[in-house]
Amino acid sequence: MKLKTIIVDDERLARLELKSLLSNHPEIEIIAEYGDPNEAINGIIELSPDLIFLDIQMPGKTGFELLEELDNAPHVIFVTAYDEFAIKAFEVNAMDYILKPVEDDRLALAINKSIKFIEEEKEAEEKHENSVQLTGSDQVFIKDGEKCWFVHLKDVSYFESIGNYVRVFFNGNKPLILRSLNNLNKRLDEKEFFRANRKNIINLKWVVNVETWFNGGLQVELKDGEKIEVSRRQAAKLKDRMSL
């Protein structure tokens, strides 16, 4: 399996070094590289890579800010000289976090982990490609450890991506399921469920209030009191979806 890959780093020498290391991994196909994060955003949207190697501290926009402007960001491996952003990196579902200078063994570990997850994700996509869309009236089976539930999707207020898992919120429960948010989003009926941002899908029938938020985004309040931020890009779609 070859992963279409983009490198984003404002330092040209850092890009060259990473490209040299990646040349030892034939499963990685570098389709573009960017030194400017704003150009990278347009390139990622146009080229739809499987994976990006992303620096964090860049002029004009951090790696985290770059991801915030993408509705459906590809999988990310952060490559940075700073270790203090590791926790935040995994909060945005990074596949891995590598410190510069990059060691080949460490890079190989990150690549192998990414390939395994992306392969499983694509297999799941193919499996459910022709599946019937799930609506609020559908009942699904959820298992988390020893606990099991049969849940009507109308009772689910929202879904939250946690690394390689998705947390499902319903009736005071919040089990984890091994599933990517992207795959789940494809299975849910878009008339009832909405991708609010990179981490959340909300049940539109649970929305009780919408407020303007930072940077042109929105914040929705759900019946259970939870407040979910809607990204700037998704805010326009939500306004269209919920207007007369």
Report on the architecture of this protein.
With 244 residues, the protein is α/β, with parallel strands linked by helices. It is 32% helix and 31% strand. It has helices spanning 12-22, 37-47, 63-68, 86-91, 104-128, 181-187, 232-242, and strands spanning 3-8, 28-34, 51-54, 75-80, 96-99, 139-144, 147-152, 156-162, 165-170, 176-177, 193-195, 200-203, 207-212, 218-222, 227-230. It has a five-stranded parallel beta sheet with strand order 2-1-3-4-5, with helices on both faces. A five-stranded antiparallel beta sheet has the order 10-9-8-12-11, with no helix packed on it. Strands 13-14-15 form a three-stranded antiparallel beta sheet. The longest helix has 25 residues, at 104-128. The radius of gyration is 19 Å and the shape is globular. The mean pLDDT is 90.
Overview in brief:
With 244 residues, the protein is α/β, with parallel strands linked by helices. The chain has helices at residues 12-22, 37-47, 63-68, 86-91, 104-128, 181-187, 232-242, and strands spanning 3-8, 28-34, 51-54, 75-80, 96-99, 139-144, 147-152, 156-162, 165-170, 176-177, 193-195, 200-203, 207-212, 218-222, 227-230.
